[in-house]
Amino acid sequence: MATTEVRIAPEVIGTAAPRSERLPDPGIVVIFGASGDLTKRKLLPALFHLEQQGLLPAEFAIVGVARRNLKSEFAADMKDGILKFGGVKENDQRLDSFIDKVDYHAMNFDDDAGYTDLKALLDQIDRERGTEGNRLFYLAVAPEYFSDIINRLGVHGMAHPEKGHARVIIEKPFGHDLKSARELNDEVNKVFNEEQIFRIDHYLGKETVQNILVFRFANGIFEPIWNRNFIDHVQITAAESIGIEGRGPFYEKAGALRDVVQNHVMELLSFVAMEPPVSFEASAVRGEKVKVWRAIKPIAIENTVRGQYALGMADGQQVQGYREEDRVDPNSATETFASLKLEMENWRWAGVPFYLRAGKRMAKRVTEITIQFKQPPLLLFDRPGTGGCSEIQPNLMVIRIQPDEGISLRFGAKVPGPETNVCPVVMDFQYATAFGVNSANGYERLLLDAMLGDQTLFAHRDGVEATWSLYTPVLEAWAKTKPRDFPNYTSGTWGPKAADGLIGRDGRRWHNG
Prior knowledge:
Residues 1-20 have low confidence and may be disordered. It contains 13 helices and 19 strands. The protein is 33% helix and 20% strand. By secondary structure, the chain is of the alpha/beta class.
């Protein structure tokens, strides 16, 4: 297949994005669960990237909070994480001064005395560093600790300080069904106002996800055809080649539908399907996303497929099946793959199916959105030829979220020669080629927005409950009928055959990037 590369204007290639003029107020980022991998691999590297770009105030500090006694080694460990996972050079002169702003507090999350001491430490940092009483609490902890930490922050006067502001970032999963999500929302709202709450989905920090809105609404050639009159169907794939990576107890409670589809995949779907917001303010964008989710028809159980991986090959090595993974029930019914067909009842998308799939131990790691356009009348080209293309393929637009971030467009072109033979060619845009390799991990934008109080890329409780209301009936139906064919797909493949049947019965097939 021929490939035509997009030409980027010379003045764009290799240039950095213009520096944002947004600078947060002085403040302290307090990370609960700071001894976990997320802090070392993602959060501290992201905060240092902001420091490198001049996007953090001089009056700034970080306090890690966890149960282990790491006071003497925490800062050094975080420096090591920034160097290993942040693409940072050891001779960066800003690194040591940044690490000087890192502190640590050991406590149990249910220990009231620990919160009293934490508040005293934060007040001390205010006096020494001029952080003005502003706090951003990041809950990088297991979901069972969310309510406890939030309640005690309220009891100890840290949710609504007399001086400065307080905000809280809550990691997913936010609930495990509609009932638990509502209960957690109610618990959080007893302590924090909705304007203080930032429910994070790290997918929304990815440049390619944010670019979907720019791609649609900043280019006049796409939006007029972005509807049921021109689009045949939409596919969203979130595939991983890895297994559960030692997270048996977590995954046994979660499964693919809760872990990926209800949050990550639905966020991608909303960006593809939403109407143009009146502005890019948080309320306008989030309002349009909720409209999309509420327009989705109840999901029929026959439009769902679940799977579980078996022994197979992944990345050239033999790997074990899910039931053989550490701390997994040998008779587990937990799905490591989920596929669904969704349908909407609105003017833009009525009659256009959305096919979703997500899974572990699949053929390759790829997250992408495929827009397949309707086939034009082809009688004009219905003549024998020798061009080597068996059929004229429909136009495809593929938005690659990860890896190899970019956008490609497939269209038909005449093969050179005396006969009229039409073959597909691809016009391909890659972020790395156009703008250079970006060391950011996606948390930079989200952390900066939270410090600024911008909730545009964070979930509102209405959105969380809207997506759970769609998937809770599916989870309940699956729980009532245990799968008899698990495991039903080999590691290193594209999932169970039933998923091919789900899309195949409509005369369509998966685009396996």
